[in-house]
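Researcher: Please generate the 3D structure of the following complex. Treat every line as part of one assembly.
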Amino acid sequence: MNQYEPVIGLEVHVELNTKSKMFSGSSADYFSKEPNSCTDPTNLGLPGSLPYINEQAIEDCMKIGLALNCQIADVSRFERKNYFYPDLPKGYQISQYRWPLCKNGWLEVEDKDGNVTKIRINRVHQEEDTGKLTHTDGQTLIDFNRSSVPLVEIVSEPDFHDSSQVRDYAKKLQQIFRYLGVSNADMERGDMRLEANVSVRKIGETELPNYRIELKNINSFRFMVAAIEYEIKRQIEALEKGEKLTQETRGWNENKKETFLQRSKEEAHDYRYFPDPDLPEIRMEESRVKSLESGMPELPEAKVKRFISDYGISKANAQILVDSKELANYFEKTVEDGKDIGVSPTDIANYIINRKVNIDEVKPKQVVEEIANRKVGVVEDEGEIEKVVDEVLMENEKSVDDYKNGKTNAIQSLIGGVMRKTGGKVNIETVRRVLQEKLES
Amino acid sequence: MKLTSDQVKHTAKLAKLPLTEEQIEVYAEQISRILDYIDQLNKVGTEGVEPTFNVTGSFNVMKKDEVTKNLTQDAALQNASSKNNHFFVTKGVFENE
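Model: Done. Output below.
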């Protein structure tokens, strides 16, 4: 059974968190708003309305492209993707097809053994979201609040060969969207959506299989992994039985833990893309791309490398700390505070990770002091502490003067001196008290 | 170039147009003539001529990311033939089941 290998490509949609819609001025912040309260004539597809391109969305799309090592197109155009469905009031979706904004990128994923796979990215393009349908009692209710919210699509080449690579890639994308600040990328809310194209071929074959199964409408990383695993097994079994597989779209039924047919090839769409005559092309100047590039925030991968080289912490720890921008910033602030009193970045990393510190409530200073205090007990004799304190006071005349001249902050570096001399193995409060006594006597 | 009736049916389906058998015949004939004309156009030498996608010749026409105006729910729904609790209503489309 094992002579097959899966061939998987992934399409990721991400909703941008712009203030306004992709082509008009109503609010794009529609979550939990009253139905049809965030609309305007353009995104209702009313006659006579005309679209205008949202500058911020284009910039966000390019940022995603740059983060994924894409080339930014000199000339890019919007096209109409034509089909009828009640969530699409114009009868077409404005999307990009032949002239995407960004193309030919890549992203690397690494498994737990350190094997790196480079996933090629075919394109990153800009489009608009559709309305939201609710099916009830033989009727379909339509809310157009989501209609024309900016949506970016990231299309990979079929470079994945197992479901964990797909998961790692998708999670990495989510992290990048959040670092860039272009989307909340919340799967459950539908900010980020995954579609996988799955097929299998005999190991050793290099041609792409002549069919692919599209897995759609799956709203969690876990379900996507389960659906892909199920599909790989189902397809291998079918091929072993001599069945012929054809193009189809399938969904995931979490209760039954199986995929089910949504649409077969005979019903496949014929979109008749053509350039949207209402939207002038985008010409991207190199200087604009360069300035965007130089304004890009430090991304997770670079941050992991810097944390390892600057702070000497382990790769595993660095990866955990870089999980969110907020946690990474918190760690760096704590390291900064710890410097003064000789608390090492490694101790701080371990503490934050093992204690699962709540970064919204605990101040970095508290973490540092807590770590310093944990080393209590090794030097308890106050006489000994006084001896060290005297040494430190002698060696740091400047700090002593500063303190006496009213810069009471100078005590921090004196405490740091004592901590360093004792390897941090004294109670920080005792040190502070002894120092104060001596400085103020 | 003669369009087959299947091609006309397919095109009508994409455009959501219900056609009778007679209409299919009529349109097959008419659209074929249009395609013949396109064939003539295709014979014109256009090497080195860039296609025109937009007749205004403008580019980079964009708007700032600002919320200008939301329609009220009532205004948004005023032309709806069927509505329910501020939703547009259409006959059921069932995707999954």
